[in-house]
Design goal:
alpha/beta; Rossmann fold; 2 domains; 9-stranded mixed β-sheet; 6-stranded parallel β-sheet; globular
């Protein structure tokens, strides 16, 4: 960032920030990473900077429904394999930032983001193509902002791959959205990396394998995580990187994510049956709840607890069947549950089987539906998040914006954003991801639900909390600014 100073004025010239990511909402999203990359650049642009997003070109609905122009064509290599790539740009800037997709025929142009046997090759080729392209610009960007392990080889490559030496003085920032996934690959694949200074092999290695996330942590100029609590938690729980996180804490900081209030706002949300603001929260939520309960055959007089998310162990979704069963027996059917998500087949099957046992008090939609998710935030009374790992969490912030009380485990960003009602707060927190802790919390929720005035006061308070991106954007810009000096 450059400055002009005078006697009375101080102006900052805008920075060009390149976000490189495997996901970006609404183009392609598997989780919170997509939400962040779809929002942060937009709000950085609104703050007067030039933020752009570069991601793989998957075969998604967004790809086919929008207009594109070819920005660049090039040829580079992954080891001994020479490949062509094409950079296409979305024409209308409809997302609030320049969006570039990298097409590598047969490698990136697939239906899914992850889950292929050659994901290592796919994301290595993607990163190499991105740097090969940027390296040919007639200028240098101010910052390369990399997200998670899919792009975390970039800080190493701009420093130590001879072909990219020109970019060596461009600051790199690595944001860790989830340290559980690290992109491990064997040393037999080291030839994928463009010719590099082999004296620096120790920067790639972690426990006798190439660990892209570890390499990024070691070589990025700055490392951020998506909440302060998650940064601390990674020092004792980071899937094997605990000591590295501690060693690199001097250049690391936690910046809590925001939410995109243009997408998540009950006053303007086009997915809702009834839009509402804090003043009419009760009426608005009642109308949306009534619609939900009718659609899923639930008793609308009961408090409604929902779960929205991936059905995986990280989210503690495996405890949901027992927790729901225990809660319904404990509350004698005076509570409803609705689940939206997909993931591990065994968990999906167990949740489907519960439908027959608890008709009228429980239902589930296996899959993902954007409209339904918005309706559930609006129509629910409580959102359950028993996560084992939750680096930041956006769902609890969406819930609060919609006046839905978060019922969360005290971990990561959930701990940073939710204050328990017992501490004069607006949420319900519990310590362990167990059916017992969830059942006890559901009992507390039912008690809160019965105190109508207290419940409405909590809802109005939550809806007025500012979880927008502006504070986060300011922190990121300050971080970039420090790197330029």
């Amino acid at each position: 960032m450059k400055y002009f100073t005078g006697v009375f004025k101080f102006f900052a010239i805008s920075m060009e920030i390149i976000h490189i990511s495997a996901e970006c909402y609404p183009v392609a999203k598997a989780g919170g990473l997509g939400d962040v990359v779809g929002a942060l650049p937009k709000y950085q642009n609104k703050s007067g900077h030039v933020a752009k997003v570069v991601m793989p070109m998957y075969r998604t609905k967004f790809l086919y429904e929008n207009q594109w122009q070819v920005d660049h064509k090039g040829t580079t290599s992954l080891g001994s394999w020479m490949f062509d790539y094409t950079i296409i740009k979305e024409k209308t800037n409809k997302l609030g930032f320049d969006l570039y997709l990298v097409d590598i025929n047969g490698l990136l142009d697939r239906d899914r983001i992850y889950g292929y046997h050659d994901d290592t090759e796919r994301f290595m080729a993607f990163q190499i193509a991105v740097l090969h392209w940027i390296n040919q610009w007639d200028h240098k960007p101010d910052v390369l902002h990399c997200h998670d392990h899919h792009t975390s080889m970039i800080p190493f490559m701009v420093k130590y791959c001879y072909a990219f030496n020109r970019l060596g003085n461009v600051p790199t920032v690595l944001t860790i959205h989830n340290a559980q996934y690290q992109g491990w690959m064997g040393w037999d694949k080291s030839h994928y990396i463009p010719a590099w200074d082999t004296w620096k092999g120790g920067l790639l290695d972690w426990k006798n394998t190439i660990n892209p996330l570890a390499a990024g942590i070691k070589t990025a100029w700055k490392v951020t995580t998506v909440s302060s609590s998650y940064l601390e938690e990674m020092k004792w729980s980071a899937n094997g990187l605990e000591s590295l996180i501690s060693q690199e804490q001097f250049k690391s900081m936690g910046i809590l994510n925001g939410i995109d209030t243009e997408v998540w706002n009950p006053e303007t949300d086009r997915y809702l049956r009834e839009q509402y603001d804090p003043e009419i929260v009760r009426r608005g939520k009642d109308i949306n709840k009534k619609f939900l309960c009718k659609e899923f055959h639930l008793d609308e007089s009961n408090p409604l607890v929902v779960f929205i998310g991936r059905l995986v162990g990280e989210k503690a979704a495996d405890i949901l069947p027992d927790a729901i069963l225990s809660s319904l027996y404990s509350m004698q059917g005076n509570v409803n549950f609705l689940v939206l998500g997909n993931g591990e087949p065994e968990i999906e099957n167990q949740l489907v089987q519960l439908k027959n046992t608890f008709a009228g008090n429980y239902n589930a939609f296996i899959g993902y539906d954007e409209t339904l998710s918005h309706l559930m935030y609006a129509g629910a009374d409580f959102l359950l998040m028993p996560s084992r790992v939750e680096p930041c969490g956006l769902n609890q912030m969406y819930a609060m914006k919609y006046g839905t009380v978060p019922m969360v485990r005290s971990t990561g960003g959930l701990k940073d954003t939710v204050v328990d009602v017992g501490d004069n707060g607006w949420g319900i927190r519990f310590e362990q991801p167990t059916a017992g802790d969830v059942t006890y919390s559901v009992g507390r929720a039912v008690q809160v639900y019965q105190e109508k005035e207290k419940m409405e006061s909590m809802q109005q308070h939550m809806m007025n909390i500012d979880h927008s991106w502006q504070h986060s954007v300011d922190q990121y810009i300050n971080l970039y600014q420090d790197l330029k000096h």
